[in-house]
Amino acid sequence: MAGRLIYLIGPSGSGKDSLLDAARQSLAERGCRIVRRVITRSAEAVGEAAHGVSPEQFAAMDANGAFALSWHANGLSYGIPREIDDWLAAGDDVLVNGSRAHLAQTRERYPTLLVLLLTVDQAVLRQRLVARGRESLADIEARLARNARFTAALIAANGAGLFVLDNSGPLAHTVERLLCCLDSSAL
What we know:
single chain, Rossmann fold, about 190 residues, globular, 9 strands
């Protein structure tokens, strides 16, 4: 039996990396692999434990078929290694930190994927983005406005095919909801 692709999406600052780190052991115990993305951001940059490559390296990898999925967002390129197809074929579940904007293309390639949308209260998200210090306050406000519109449209367009996880409270609660969602969707 083939594994399932679990596609975690959410706005920058929603806590996807924190959630994955906190749930890593429990997911592994359930036979779920967490994919390490390839990103054109320095490996020393603060954030997820991704494989950092130069834009030129990324372009060469993409041209050589190294990625099952790839996209560009916020001035960066992201790639999901093609080995996920082997893991899925072997029956492993695979969790990907994906892109909301790339969801339609991902669904075309993996029509049975499970989509998890991580949300967070706008005030909490604002605090997290300010604390990160990567953007100006004006950029953060613009990002929050885009996020609100994008999230509403995403939920409306995907309905029952989308599981929403609110990460505004304690991370342990979000981990618990994530695991319950995965367990209930396995039925």
